[in-house]
Specification:
The complex is a heterodimer of chains A (397) and B (520). Chain A is α/β, with parallel strands linked by helices. Chain A has helices at 10-22, 61-67, 114-117, 124-127, 178-181, 184-197, 212-224, 237-245, 257-265, 293-302, 323-327, 347-357, 373-381, and strands at residues 2-6, 34-38, 49-58, 89-93, 105-108, 162-165, 169-171, 204-208, 229-233, 250-252, 268-270, 278-280, 283-288, 303-311, 331-334, 364-368, 390-394. Chain A has 2 domains: 2-183 and 360-394, Medium-chain alcohol dehydrogenases, catalytic domain (Quinone Oxidoreductase, Chain A, domain 1), CATH 3.90.180.10; 187-334, Rossmann fold, CATH 3.40.50.720. Chain B is α/β, with parallel strands linked by helices. Chain B has 2 domains: 2-31 and 336-519, LarA, C-terminal domain (2-enoyl-CoA Hydratase, Chain A, domain 1, Alpha-Beta Complex); 43-252, LarA, N-terminal domain (Rossmann fold, 3-Layer(aba) Sandwich). Chain B has helices spanning 43-52, 60-63, 89-103, 123-130, 132-138, 170-173, 194-198, 202-205, 211-215, 227-240, 273-288, 291-299, 315-330, 359-370, 402-414, 418-430, 433-441, 449-456, 458-463, 474-479, 488-499, and strands at residues 2-3, 11-16, 19-22, 29-31, 69-74, 108-113, 143-145, 154-159, 165-169, 177-184, 245-252, 307-313, 331-335, 338-346, 380-389, 466-470, 483-485, 505-508, 515-519. In chain B, strands 1, 2, 3, 4, 14, 15, 16, 17 and 18 form a 9-stranded mixed beta sheet that branches. In chain B, α20 links the parallel β16 (466-470) and β17 (483-485). The chains are: A alpha/beta (397), B alpha/beta (520). At the A-B interface, α9 of A face α15 and α17 of B.
Chain lengths: 397, 520
């Protein structure tokens, strides 16, 4: 089969990292540890597994961080190489999989937790339904990999075939388009983040970063916390437009986000000699969706004392002043993936239900065949500036 | 008034902290300010006479008694423009008032800067205005800025028969005599506008500093046809029953620029060789200067303004004489309106002394003050175009204009319509606790101030077909709701889309300030 494969190559990884600073277009070319070619289809690791042929596979911020050489080394033990990237996947089952017959259109829940790994009894987290917090993602009969798309045994969405466990599959309703379905995985992350945040009626909420995750967080907030006042910090016109469409009450430039929150909450503002201003008062909850230290700094400074800052974007290694966390007793909350939420519903079911009620298709801005992967990655890297949100690989072509 | 022909040299346009030389099409009119009228030979003597021989009141010395409470309020740093050479007129007047009070044995004397919702003056600025002697004697216990947000120093006086609430400085209201010292730079200033505005609060000002009133002020440089002045007059007369006010008003000639900058006041064809050399040296120097250095240079210019009259006594009687003296210096007859009015916006306006003329203040200067410099009819016809030259960069003074930054980023991003802005945003800004804190404890204009600056331009926005910012930063100008052009030729071509192919063009050479009396 044809697939894009990410291999371990320290020189290429470092070359990508260096090139990314001066010529982002080069990172997906010959310099990158990413290669398009023929590879063997992955074997079925065991019972409950089936082959899946992706229709659309998204390019996510974490994929870009990896390609650009900015991924955190923290994840090293939870990745096995070489692997086929791609964890935002909508596709069709090539085999029967327990109760799902071949031909079923499904969306992939990529976390490779205890059930997929044949670990029984499951870890404490999986036992309580929090598969995103699985403690055994480097164990079992599947190679290490926190998700499909980072695991040498399963293939990924950026290839013609991958293998998936029944626990990873969610059948899709017919009315949900492939474009909407490919966004179900990041939407589930957004839903989970909003539920983790515990937003209350009347809260003022800041969302920084208006890429796919930020925009879907806005949509999730509008649905799950309708009484909140949502302020989205968006840089590019398309992001501003979509943030409004998906339910942001107010949209501002990232550079003026703190002032905007101040005005909305009638807080006082302090302006230190160095660094960003900070608020006495401010947002009740902030969502950092860009994985960007400057945006996180903004959230820490624009959130009221004892408020909550939710990390939705993947943060890498960075230097950041944590004095606001200490001084204002902020809660710093991570929001990684999904699982069983309070009340018993599965995050993916909530996300699929929400995806049926809102129009996500405008967020899929460009579709590329695998053969044009360099262009696709270049486009995704500069999505905002190119008036785009989500760039996907179209494997049905 | 001068009409250009093919031999007319390029004309100087003020351009913020710089200049442009522009060639106007032949047949354009240039309206120049009049020559300075002679100043008073003996300013101190004239002040003494005014205090001894006031209009429709007893002499000041007869109003003073030892056990009284006396408050002296005076105009703030927004007047005059540019700041005048020392001694400042306020110093000359206040020194004599204080001397009379001392001779009468008045002990309870307090001096208050009547800056209303403007930023407070720094100690150095106050010292410059009142002089060393007065400053040393009164600062800081008995010489201070007014605080329109200090609940302990405000009193609600009542409501006019038009429902206008009058809330004023408590110290002034509780005084046996309030002496108000004014500098009447333009016809808008002074009279009943001094006390109810200068010592008034947002609660009072909102009754006349609003879109409806300013649209009905044609123009606010002509009090006879100004709803703004009708409102302040009602407030002033309402106060007159409850507070004894001794008004002292002064007028200036229009010597705005000292040598070597005096070429800025001259007609283009009058420039001497020295003027041309000075212009070239200054222009080339400015190009090499850092922005902060340029700003420092410009704001260090001290106008050689001289006093042309001083009158004291009852407000209405005094102000009638004041306006006569303002008109004596500033009125210029102009026959007929124009299709296109061009103007250069200088580095300084009333609200950026020692500060930045930010984009909102540029709009206020061009479409507020300069557009409204008329009696009779606007210089530009209904549906005409104003071309104003200014770099209009997105630059704000963070200490002086914090609410302006949010007005630009938040309010103008939503709408530029003055009425909608007033309805949706004014109340929140006016009551915002951070702006209130900065107004009271720092040197910030009140939270509502940028709204007033925008409303100041409402009449022009309503009257004009277009406004084009010559040399303005396109992105910033777009946020303001207008268009920019990089050259005058481009601006004129753009204007022709609105006013037709063969427009009449008039250039307003300002400053120095003057008042065209336009016969349509």
């Amino acid at each position: 089969m044809i697939a894009l494969t990410f291999s371990r190559s320290v020189p290429r990884y470092l070359a990508s990292r260096a090139a990314g600073r001066v010529a982002p277009g080069l990172v997906a070319s010959t310099l990158a540890p990413l290669k398009l070619g023929h590879v063997d289809e992955p074997d079925l690791p065991g019972p409950g597994w089936a082959r899946l042929t992706p229709t659309l596979a998204g390019i996510c911020g974490s994929d870009l961080a990896m390609v650009h050489g900015h991924a955190s080394f923290y994840f090293g033990p939870l990745v096995s190489m070489p692997f086929v990237p791609g964890h935002e996947v909508v596709g069709v089952l090539a085999d029967d999989c327990e109760d799902l017959p071949a031909g079923t259109r499904v969306v992939l829940e990529p976390v490779l937790a205890c059930a997929a790994r044949g670990i029984d009894p499951p870890c404490a987290a999986c036992g309580s339904g929090h598969v995103g917090s699985c403690e055994r993602t480097a164990n079992g009969h599947v190679a290490p990999g926190l998700q499909t798309g980072f695991c040498a045994d399963t293939g990924g969405g950026w290839g013609e075939v991958l293998v998936a466990h029944r626990s990873q599959l969610h059948a899709l309703p017919a009315e949900l388009s492939d474009e909407a379905a490919v966004l179900v995985e990041p939407l589930a992350c957004a839903v989970h983040a909003v539920l983790r945040a515990g937003v209350l009626e009347g809260d003022t909420v800041l969302v920084t970063g208006a890429g796919t995750m930020g925009l879907l967080t806005v949509a999730a907030l509008r649905d799950l916390a309708p009484g909140a006042r949502v302020i989205a910090a968006a840089k590019h016109p398309v992001q501003k437009r979509e943030a409004r469409r998906l339910g942001a009450d107010e949209v501002c430039d990232p550079a003026s986000a703190t002032r905007h929150v101040r005005l909305a909450t009638r807080a006082l503002m302090h302006e230190p000699e160095r660094g960003q201003p900070w608020l006495a008062g401010g947002a009740d909850v902030s969502f950092e969706c860009a994985g960007n230290p400057v945006a996180l700094d903004t959230c820490l400074r624009a959130t009221r004392a004892r408020g909550r800052v939710v990390l939705v974007g993947l943060p890498g290694a960075s230097t950041i002043d944590l004095a606001p966390v200490w001084h204002r007793e902020l809660e710093l909350v991570g929001a990684y993936t999904y699982g069983r939420e309070t009340g018993g519903a599965h995050t993916f079911d909530l996300a699929i239900d929400l995806a049926r009620r809102i129009d996500l298709t405008p967020l899929v801005s460009a579709r590329y065949p695998l053969s044009r992967y360099a262009e696709a990655i270049d486009h995704a890297t500069d999505a905002g500036r190119l008036d785009s949100v989500k760039v996907v690989f179209d494997l049905a072509r | 008034m001068y009409e250009t022909d093919r031999r007319t040299p390029p004309v100087l346009f003020h351009y913020g902290e710089g200049f442009r030389l522009e060639t106007l099409p032949a047949g354009s009119r240039i309206v120049y300010p009049p020559e300075p009228v002679p100043a008073l030979r003996d300013e101190r003597g004239a002040i003494a006479r005014a205090l001894d021989e006031p209009f429709e009141m007893e002499p000041l010395r007869a109003l003073l008694r030892p056990d009284m409470k006396l408050t002296i309020a005076f105009d703030d740093i927004s007047l005059p423009l540019p700041q005048m050479r020392q001694p400042d007129i306020r110093q000359l007047v206040i020194e004599q008032v204080v001397q009379l009070a001392a001779e009468a044995g008045v002990e309870d004397v307090e001096l208050i800067v009547a800056q209303s919702l403007h930023r407070k003056m720094t100690p150095a600025e106050i010292r410059r205005a009142v002089g060393d002697r007065v400053f040393r004697a009164f600062w800081p216990e008995r010489l201070r800025n007014f605080d329109a947000e200090d609940p302990d120093d405000l009193v609600f006086v009542g409501t006019t028969d038009h429902g206008e609430e009058v809330e004023l400085c408590k110290r002034a209201m509780e005084s046996d005599l309030l002496v108000y010292v004014n500098i009447n730079l333009v016809a808008m200033d002074g009279g009943h506008k001094s006390v109810p505005v200068g010592l008034g609060t947002y609660r009072s000002l909102r009754h006349h500093h609003n879109v409806k009133t300013l649209l009905d002020s044609n123009s606010y440089m002509d009090p006879r046809h100004s709803a703004l002045h009708r409102s302040t007059e009602r407030m002033g007369r309402f106060l007159a029953d409850k507070l004894k006010i001794f008004h002292i008003e002064t007028t200036l000639n229009n010597e705005a620029f000292p040598a070597p900058y005096d070429f800025l006041s001259k007609r283009a064809f009058e420039w001497s060789f020295r003027d041309q050399a000075t212009y070239l040296a200054l222009s080339s120097g400015l190009k090499r200067m850092k922005p902060a250095t340029k700003r420092k240079l410009f704001h260090s210019i001290e106008a050689p303004h001289r006093m042309t009259s001083v009158q004291a006594g009852q407000t209405d009687a005094v102000h009638a004489e004041t306006l006569r003296n303002v008109h004596r210096q500033q009125l210029v007859p102009v026959q007929g309106q124009t299709d296109i009015l061009t103007m250069g916006i200088p580095y300084v306006g009333p609200y950026n002394v020692n500060s930045v003329l930010n984009p909102i203040l540029v709009v206020c200067m061009g479409l507020g003050y300069f557009f409204n410099l008329y009696r009779g009819a606007p210089l530009v016809r209904p549906g005409g175009v104003v071309i104003l030259a200014h770099p209009t960069e997105r630059e704000f003074h963070p200490t002086h204009h914090p609410s302006y930054i949010d007005f630009f980023d938040r309010v103008l991003a939503e709408t530029t319509d003055p009425a909608e802005i007033e309805k949706r945003f004014e109340a929140d800004f006016a009551s915002d606790p951070w702006y209130r804190h900065l107004y009271r404890n720092s040197y910030a204009y009140h939270g509502v101030h940028p709204f007033y600056m925008w409303y100041w331009a409402a009449h022009a926005m309503d009257h004009l077909g277009d406004a084009i910012f010559l040399g303005g930063d396109p992105k910033t100008v777009r946020r303001l709701g207008f268009r920019s052009a990089s050259t005058l030729d481009d601006a004129l071509e753009m204007a022709k889309q609105t006013v037709g192919l063969h427009p009449s063009i008039t250039h307003l050479h300002c400053p120095p300030l003057f008042l065209p009396e336009v016969t349509p």
